[in-house]
Write a structure and sequence with these properties.
heterodimer, A: 114 residues, mainly beta, 11 strands, 0% helix, 51% strand, globular, B: 108 residues, 6-stranded mixed beta sheet, 5-stranded antiparallel beta sheet
Amino acid sequence: NAGVTQTPKFQVLKTGQSMTLQCAQDMNHEYMSWYRQDPGMGLRLIHYSVGAGITDQGEVPNGYNVSRSTTEDFPLRLLSAAPSQTSVYFCASRSSGTGNYGYTFGSGTRLTVV
Amino acid sequence: RKEVEQDPGPFNVPEGATVAFNCTYSNSASQSFFWYRQDCRKEPKLLMSVYSSGNEDGRFTAQLNRASQYISLLIRDSKLSDSATYLCVVNNNNDMRFGAGTRLTVKP
């Protein structure tokens, strides 16, 4: 049981390049989310999904796309990287069952856009 | 106004001290509440859920006041290993919002 796995752990992009951050979970969780964390700002929600085929925008969705074709995978795509997207990105998942379930996070992707 | 606000600290306390963190949230429709802990350059980890009746897990006690839209975390008998940033989290229909965190350093 690996939990939430994010790849890559580190990435440097040039302005204008595109890339996909991968996220996979093996806990059969229905809910998944992407956050970015910047110094002094805490985690901000980019996009989230409540199940395969369903996604929604969070607080800071511009410049990012997501899709959820399977329960396990929730990739985040940067369409045209900008220096403002330099950040640490966390993927998280949680159960949809009744109860007060918090998110389990992946170990993060540190992205630098130059 | 941010949806979830926390005192950023830092809180510097000696071992054995009791320390309390506070958090306020703006969305009165929020349904569930959590405290997370985040160590430097690591991912956040769930510390505990927060219930209206208050709940305790060892040295940690969490309280929720829905009328005042206020959440608290009390740590008793602080250990060196409690040094971390503590994040307040508020959930409304699967849109989980995080506070910026309160940094705690426990010193010998």
